Amino acid sequence: MSQNIYQRISVTRVAGHIGADIDGVDLSVPLDPDTVAEIRDALLAHKVVFFHGQKIGHAEHVAFGRNFGELTLRPRPQSGGDLDEFPEICAISPTIDIARYGRDIEAHYRSRWVSAIGGWHTDMTHAVNPPMASILRAETAPAFGGDTQWTNLVAAYEGLSAPLRRFVDDLRAEHTFWAGYQMSEHDELDRSIMEMVNAKAMVAVHPVVRVHPESDEKALFVSPSRTSHILGMSRVESRRLLDLLYEQITRPEYTVRLRWEPGAVAFWDNRSTAHIAAADVNAADGSRILHRVTIVGDIPVGPDGFSSYAVAGRPFGSADR
Ligand code: SIN
């Protein structure tokens, strides 16, 4: 169903709680402020919006992202290599990983997940200021497999019972890069990956419930990949509660799934969503090449006014060169 409140764009919802297609916009040319404002409104309303058939390269991708804020540099340790001209762009491609590290690093991480849903994450929540939003573009895509799925963390929060909402409202949790993985110091590759990541370690404490700075909606701000434990609880209590919350945020009814095609662009609000790449893609075929930019985010705040703080590392910003 098309939402008629927009003048410049056409917005069509694609799932019950999250996701909309946006048509009538050409991302290869500069956008006027009214169009940008409508895209921003649609993003806030639908949490992730999809554009299709866009003929854009890195420069247009960066220009589009800048309409919505300052862009971060790509996360380290990814070196970028071929992307030196575009330090904001993060490449997501098994082929590039294999050329750079001799391995499909994402597949290696997946083999270290501590649970089957270990890949669900919100981008960079190990930073004190996770990005406000991310924009992912498909250059090439496999004929099938490798879809990305998003979940609405606001709907997940609202779907909890009132007593449980009250219970989680003033909890805080630590987020680290390693929370969802079981790496081994006795494995050479694990050790070298840990050294690479730990050289730029980021650890942050965030509210378990984040109040959206623009909409005031409350989101269940935890993810299997990054949330290590809830503060003030024993590890056993924390594990059980997090497992319950993870089950909630990954319920199918809160999610939407995108089948990538060349020219598809997904733009998500990183303050109210988590996402995962389906691990059903054949890395050897090399055709899944995506590029991402992220927009600098602010420091999350909980319902009780608690603000996130960094345990390690600096804020994730554009100045972090
Ligand atoms: C990401 O985590 O931003 C990338 C997701 C994907 O590869 O589909």
Task: Please tag this protein with its features.
321 residues; alpha+beta; Double-stranded beta-helix; 8-stranded mixed beta sheet; 4-stranded antiparallel beta sheet; 8 helices; 24% helix; binds succinic acid
In short:
The chain has eight helices and 17 strands. The protein is of the alpha+beta class. A hairpin with a 6-residue loop joins β10 and β11.
Topology:
Blueprint: E1 2-3, E2 10-13, E3 20-23, H1 33-46, E4 48-51, H2 58-66, E5 90-92, H3 94-101, H4 105-111, E6 133-140, E7 148-152, H5 153-158, H6 162-169, E8 172-176, H7 188-198, E9 203-207, E10 209-211, E11 218-220, E12 227-230, H8 235-249, E13 255-258, E14 265-269, E15 273-277, E16 289-295, E17 309-312
Parallel strand pairs: 3-4
Antiparallel strand pairs: 1-2, 2-3, 4-14, 5-16, 6-14, 6-16, 7-13, 7-15, 8-9, 8-12, 9-17, 10-11
The chain binds succinic acid.
- Helical stretch tally: 8
The percent range for helix content is 10-25%
Mean pLDDT: 93
CATH class wording: Alpha Beta
Percent range for β-strand residues: 15-25%
**CATH fold node name:** Double-stranded beta-helix
Q: Please indicate the count of domains.
A: 1
Termini gap: 44 Å
- Largest beta sheet, briefly? 8 strands, mixed
Overall 3D form: globular
Bound molecules: succinic acid
CATH architecture label name: 4-Layer Sandwich
The run of helices and strands is EEEHEHEHHEEHHEHEEEEHEEEEE
Number of strands: 17
Decide which structural class fits the backbone. Answer: alpha+beta
CA-based gyration radius: 19 Å
Q: Spans with pLDDT under 50 lasting ≥5 residues?
A: none
